Amino acid sequence: MPLPTRSTMTVPRILSNVLWPLAIMTVIHRVLIRAINGSITNDFGTVYAATRRFLAGEPVYSENLLTVQPHYLYAPSGTLMLSPFGIFDNYTIARWLFILVNTAAIILALWLLMRLFNLDVKTFAAPAILLAAFSTEAVTNTLVFTNINGVIFLCQVAFLYLLHTRRLWWAGVAMGLSLAIKPMLAPLLVLPLIRKQWQPFVGALAIPAAAMAAGWAMTVDAASYLDTTMPYMGEVRDYYNSSLSGLGVYYGIPEPLILVARILVVAATLLAVWLLLDYRHNNEVLWLATTSGVVLAGVFLVSTLGQMYYSMMLIPIMLTVVLKDSLVRTWPAWLAAYAFFFPDVWESVRWPYYGRVLEFAHPTLGWLLLLVTVLVVLLWRRASPDRHERIAPSAAAA
Question: For 258-306, what is each residue's pLDDT tens digit?
């Protein structure tokens, strides 16, 4: 049987043949080699130990928070949600299962994103997105550090998808499950708030409340979460922290300057969210994905803790590049993506000071550049409406 020739194969078919092996091998490498090998940073170790203590009726919040090792910072609701992993007596089996759960969650989230963006999973887009996602620092280190953010990413994408398909009660369930584990996605409730949709708030509030009540009752030292853990989370640490406050503390920048920078970022985020309202009727997917990315980038910058692998939550905004009227079809947006997605190390033997500055600051600069880029494009389109067709809210269906 003769091999297919160039004349018998289309470009999309060629791309699929090229990209699928690269995507599959990259996923296998990230999961079976990088993740299983692990790292000196091990977020699962504290989760496993805490859930074991939780199930045994022992104090959960008994760590020494003065060390620089990963700490257990989940609320009693998160402890309850993660407790099934503490059932396993074998730590290795529990960790491998945790990795597989997060890997499956990331892949499912990418599939949902393709459905949200109306991309055919049978085309080369599927392996391209899979390869790109698993090549990022965000996905790689989520798996290597064995973090729960893969599940949180799935909750985010499910929330956006269910909002778009008007399954509002289920959107609240997706958000509620994520908030029961950690509050990272809470700012995205601004989306149904803007559209005056109350249904998502039921699950988003009831599920974490119920989980907190049950977890609190089952945690023997639940009060320590309020007395010790929450005050610690309110502090700005000067290591592994890419937020504006974290960089400011690390480099000794005066607090008033940090405060001004944070205020400016909040103002820029709010302005971008307001300008994005033009798209909520005539290009809803673009509005949902871009607003979520803008809001989360702003939160990463102004919160007390921002870590580079949080950038996985920015995959939806970058995928809007496939949509008409996308705000990330500019080179600064993808320079920003390089800064917060790529795992390149910038430590330099020849220029140690500048290399170290870039190594610590590039995620922060990337989030900031993405926010600024989106805001500038929005302002440019608003100032020159003839260059960009918009539908007034009054002319569109709610």
Answer: 999 999 999 999 999 999 999 998 899 999 999 999 999 999 999 999 9
Please report, for residues 62, 79, 81, 149, 173, the alpha-carbon distance to residue 163 in angstroms, rounded to integers and kept in the order given: 40, 28, 24, 21, 11
CA distance 287 to 317: 9
CB 102 within 8 A of CB 149: yes
The residue written with tokens 């407790």 in the block is 83
Burial of residue 166 (number of CB atoms within 10 Å: 0-12, 13-18, 19+) = exposed
Could you state, in order of their start, the residue ranges of all structural domains in the chain? 18-233, 237-398
Q: What is the dihedral of CA 75, 81, 87, 92, to 10 degrees?
A: -80
Kindly state the average pLDDT of the residues 363-387.
90
Q: Sorting pLDDT into bands at 50, 70 and 90, what band is 394? A: very low
Identify residue 266 by its one-letter amino acid code: V
Closest CA to 300 of 232, 246, 238: 246
DSSP 327: S
Token look-up 């597989």 returns 100
What is the rounded average pLDDT for all residues in the chain?
A: 91
Question: Are 57 and 86 in contact, with CB atoms under 8 Å apart?
Answer: no
pTM (predicted TM-score): 0.93
Residue 242, both tokens: 């890419």
Report the alpha-carbon distance of residue 174 to residue 75 in Å, rounded. 18
Tally Cβ neighbours within 10 Å of residue 137. 18
- In this structure, the dihedral spanned by the alpha carbons of residues 272, 276, 278 and 280, taken in order and rounded to 10 degrees, is -160
- Residue 82, C-beta contacts closer than 8 angstroms, at least 6 positions apart: 47, 50, 51, 74, 148, 181
* Residues ≥6 apart with Cβ < 8 Å to 189: 175, 200, 201, 204
